[in-house]
Prior knowledge:
By secondary structure, the protein is an alpha+beta fold. The protein has helices at residues 14-18, 45-64, 69-91, 151-154, 158-168; strands spanning 2-3, 38-42, 94-99, 102-107, 111-116, 122-130, 133-141, 146-150. The strands form 2 sheets. Strands 1, 6, 7 and 8 form a 4-stranded antiparallel beta sheet that branches. The protein starts with a strand and ends with a helix.
Amino acid sequence: MEIRGAAMPDEPGPERARRGERWGEQSRDGEPPAPVDSLSYRVDGRLLAVKVVGFVIFALVALGFHEDRATVAFAGLAAVILGVYALRDVIAPVRLFADGEGVTVVSGYAARHRLSWDEIEQVRVDQRRRFGTRSNLLEIDGSEQLYLLSSYDLSAHPQDVADALDRLRPS
């Protein structure tokens, strides 16, 4: 989810568009990115650190205010939620792996699903605007299930990941 000011454009400016660049993508003198044989996208370590620090802070608040039941309940619940999310990031840090044969996606808490390129019907970016925010999700439409990954899961903009998957996918 991104919050953008009115002065910040939604798309790359004309200079970047002329060079064929997208937000966050580096280009060498307008050349397309070099071909790769596998891609791996993982959770940003900074986000994991924030979750761990939040877990520690709320756990300490719960322990420090053990006489106030409401504070213990609130802080304890917040610590448990942050701890569960941080544990998921430790157990399954790589949320998307792709190679010439297919894509491996983490779904649920830490379940891994391997999809061959033939099983993938569509890869696209779902963009929604609501209440002044914009969220972008990478959608991987498997034959029986839809996998959604955010920029927090990928540590990259979903459109950049979709473009990279397009380049990697065999023709």
